[in-house]
Amino acid sequence: MSVPLIAVEHLTMRFGGLVAVDDVSFTARPREITAIIGPNGAGKTTVFNCITGFYKPTVGRLTLRGDKEYLLERMLGHEIGQRARVARTFQNIRLFPGMTALENLMVAQHNKLMRASGMSVFGLLGLKRFRIAEADAVEIARRWLERIDLVADADRPAGELPYGAQRRLEIARAMCTEPRLLCLDEPAAGLNPRESAELNNLLVSIRDEDGVGVLLIEHDMSVVMKISDHVVVLDYGRKIAEGAPAAVRDDPAVIQAYLGTDDEALDA
Amino acid sequence: MAYFSQQLINAITLGAIYGLIAIGYTMVYGIIGMINFAHGDIFMIGAFISLIGFLICAALGINSAPLAIVLVLLMAMAFTAVYGWAIERTAYRPLRGSFRLAPLISAIGVSILLENYVQLAQGARPKPGGGSIVTGGFTLFSSDGFDVRVTWLQIVIVVVTVVLMAGFTWLIASTSLGRRQRACEQDMKMASLLGVNVDRTISLTFVMGAALAAVAGMLFLMYYGVVDFFIGFLAGIKAFTAAVLGGIGSLPGAMLGGLAIGLIEVFWAGYFSSEYKDVAVFAILVLVLIFRPSGLLGKPEIEKV
């Protein structure tokens, strides 16, 4: 067993009397796609919100291993993106709708650009180093636009793009931050089968070519079973199963959570 | 015709100054959705610092007007930027995430504080100065025995304003900093997730707005040759009207609004009565709020359901 990319230990998140996530522990490894599945309200998105700093967990430790160990629960929102390099997308798309597709990808690279400009406004006044960095950033953005098949739409406002394109653009934007861990919240939601297949290819290429660890929340089992290496199943805030996709699929606890308890099975 | 042309020239000059102040309102509103009522007083402080700067230049024996203007401009922008930064840091940032009215009330408090501070430190009497740095002009044309004059100062004001506005438009539209600002404006939480330091971006917005207000303050001082602790109030409210008229949150809107307010004020004073010029300006504010709340270039706000 290799070193995990992120270790979630005893994560508990309470909102008043409601326990959204209850003592969940799991790990995700680098260069793997780890899927988190479970019925609605199982606490999947809450886990994501804790990892990306939207919520401060009530209890628990979230360790990301990069160049050093980052304790995510202690970091400020922008540090998680900037230093620990965790990127995420949302169930409901959150692009910058008034900015062009290209600009959306450029914003995601601003940390690099800021470093090149010496963290100052002076860098903007035409330092050579900054111009080179800017050109590099445009080049990286172009390459991503090619990968997600949006080159022709580079200068269109992101809010005007078709739904499927917005989903892909959001993933590309997250990738432009050069993340170690990419958290995708239902990326296949609302996609047609063809788009869904394209998404599978994109995610596999992110895992295999870019070598990024992916944490994936997904309801679409065709996506989960096909591309994930490891599956974590949540139900009512608790982890009920974990393992390889095929093993999880046949786990009785998982079947029960998804389909409910069979009366005859209870009688027997 | 000659009279009209003269008024037009005066109006453009005044509009340029309002436009510079209005940008500060509009940028801050765009990024954190708050009206910074202390912005007019930042402008007033900029004018005072310019006055002090010109006096220092005179004391040091700097006689070249362009050199003095550049030095004073840099000094005023630097000091006023520190004011802008400090105000945001102490009076607004702690209230972020609080209820909507809290920073607004805080802003009014800061405005009163700055006015009283300057009144105590500099005295309540109007202070003359700065009016004789750039003098002279030329006659554009004469007709009906009326000379249409353009002063060099008016040209300086319009040129400085146009250059700064072009610079700012470029900064917002095509630099990494501008992209960060627009990203924060559209979705602050998401920008933060992408690693954008939202607090620093907001601070920079205040600094930029304050620096522009300082420029406006200096130009105002040179134009009118007198400054007192209360100029920020009326100029601030008028610039705010300009920002609303142009569509608050929109940078070109602020410039257009400033120009429009300058035109209304000067033409009203020129053709009707100068006592009621402020009434005319604020009547426009009321009409805009009733008939076109999103302003000339603003986008209508869509209620999310």
Fold blueprint:
The complex is a heterodimer of chains A (268) and B (305).
Chain A: E1 6-15, E2 18-28, E3 33-37, H1 44-51, E4 59-65, E5 69-71, H2 77-84, E6 86-88, H3 101-107, H4 110-116, H5 128-147, H6 163-176, E7 181-185, H7 193-208, E8 213-217, H8 221-227, E9 230-235, E10 238-243, H9 245-249, H10 252-259, H11 263-267
Parallel strand pairs in A: 3-8, 3-9, 6-7, 7-8
Antiparallel strand pairs in A: 1-2, 1-4, 4-5, 9-10
Helix pairs in contact in A: 3-5, 3-6, 4-5, 5-6
Chain B: H1 2-32, H2 39-60, H3 65-92, H4 101-122, E1 127-128, E2 137-143, E3 146-151, H5 152-174, H6 176-186, H7 188-193, H8 198-224, E4 226-227, H9 231-246, H10 251-271, H11 277-291
Antiparallel strand pairs in B: 1-4, 2-3
Helix pairs in contact in B: 1-5, 1-8, 1-9, 1-10, 2-3, 2-4, 2-8, 2-9, 3-8, 5-6, 5-8, 6-8, 9-10, 9-11, 10-11
Total of domains of chain A = 2
Residue share in β-strands of chain A: 15-25%
Main sheet specs of chain A? 6 strands, mixed
Largest interface, with counts of residues having CB < 8 Å to the other chain, equals: A-B, 31 and 21 residues
Which descriptor suits the 3D outline of chain B? Answer: globular
